[in-house]
């Protein structure tokens, strides 16, 4: 294999992983370059007053910084970006993948519907089997469905983007318990903006983003000493929108109280500032989609 001259470090790492045997057990993550990223419409409160205000160079640098950090820990795959689809960079909303199966997103936001066919085509090329999903049931993928390995369940958010009908369907398709949580604050419109299951059984979340019944459900399933609760300011820094790989956690901002809790939990925070993407209502977790670790063929589906 010939490496391009001046290939960035991450490129070399990814090519090395492309040559790795199928036993590569590193995390695999799907990303989409921000070539066409912008705020062109308003579909969540973060986007208000942000139309035309994103800076392409800065967005590219922030995304690249996140990518380089992740490339040290995980094998990365890329779905090509497309003109006119500024939010496609948020691959968390491509679908929900567990094992070999994907539920491709059915967007609530009509502005994002054209992304569905592009994501579906990528999943099919990558060899995933696509689960049947009713057209009328909105479900925005891993933005609203988070697999909690420690508990063997899927936390499902609904109320803004995904329908309340989604969790029972998810439960049936993946044969895994799905726990529905109602989101009540429009700033925390996707579950991944306000809740993050962590390795070791910790749960990072912002309680006020949920209705009372959902807060009770969380309290029943997660013992108090495992709950890391953020206040409004902390949550508004997109600290819950985090990616945990091994003992590292990548996030847009890490307020001091959270940093202490994470370190006590044995996790090392890595701050990758993503202010340009926050203008669109997303940060680290939204820019990534976790894929199953053992599909060696994914590393050939590269952007360039
Ligand atoms: N929270 C996520 O999973 N994704 C961020 C999506 C941002 C995009 N502007 C949206 O409102 O759909």
From TrEMBL:
A single MF term (Gene Ontology): arginine deiminase activity
Q: Which pathway does this chain act in? A: Amino-acid degradation; L-arginine degradation via ADI pathway; carbamoyl phosphate from L-arginine: step 1/2
Q: Which Pfam families match?
A: DDAH_eukar
Query: What's the EC number here?
Result: 3.5.3.6
Q: What reaction does this enzyme carry out catalytically?
A: L-arginine + H2O = L-citrulline + NH4(+)
What are the recorded Gene Ontology BP terms?
Answer: L-arginine deiminase pathway
Record's Gene3D superfamilies? Answer: L-arginine/glycine Amidinotransferase, Chain A
Q: What class of enzyme is it?
A: hydrolase
What the entry lists under PANTHER family is as follows:
ARGININE DEIMINASE
What's the protein called, per UniProt?
A: arginine deiminase
């Amino acid at each position: 294999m010939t490496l391009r001259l001046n290939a960035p470090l991450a490129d070399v790492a990814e090519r090395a992983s492309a040559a790795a045997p199928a036993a590569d057990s590193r995390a695999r993550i799907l990303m989409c370059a921000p070539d066409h990223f912008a705020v062109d419409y308003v579909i969540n409160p973060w986007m208000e007053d942000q139309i035309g205000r994103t800076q392409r160079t800065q967005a590219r640098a922030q995304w690249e910084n996140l990518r380089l950090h992740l490339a040290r820990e995980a094998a990365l795959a890329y779905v090509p970006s497309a003109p006119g689809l500024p939010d496609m960079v948020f691959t968390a909303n491509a679908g929900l993948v567990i094992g070999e199966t994907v539920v491709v997103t059915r967007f609530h936001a009509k502005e994002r519907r054209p992304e569905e066919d592009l994501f579906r085509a990528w999943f099919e090329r990558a060899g995933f089997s696509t689960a049947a999903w009713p057209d009328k049931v909105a479900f925005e993928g891993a933005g609203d469905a988070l697999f909690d390995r420690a508990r063997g369940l899927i936390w499902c958010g609904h109320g803004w983007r995904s329908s309340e009908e989604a969790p029972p369907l998810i439960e049936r398709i993946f044969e895994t318990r799905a726990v529905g949580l109602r989101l009540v604050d429009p700033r925390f419109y996707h579950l991944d903006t306000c809740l993050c299951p962590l390795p070791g059984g910790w749960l990072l979340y912002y309680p006020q983003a949920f209705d009372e019944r959902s807060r009770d459900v969380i309290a029943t399933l997660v013992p108090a000493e495992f709950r890391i609760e953020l206040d409004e300011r902390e949550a508004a820094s997109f600290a819950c929108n985090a990616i945990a790989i091994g003992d590292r956690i990548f996030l847009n901002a890490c307020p001091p109280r959270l940093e202490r809790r994470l370190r006590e939990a044995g996790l090392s925070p890595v701050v990758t500032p993503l202010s340009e993407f926050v203008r669109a209502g997303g940060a680290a977790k939204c820019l990534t989609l976790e894929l199953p670790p053992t599909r060696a063929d994914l590393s050939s589906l590269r952007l360039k």
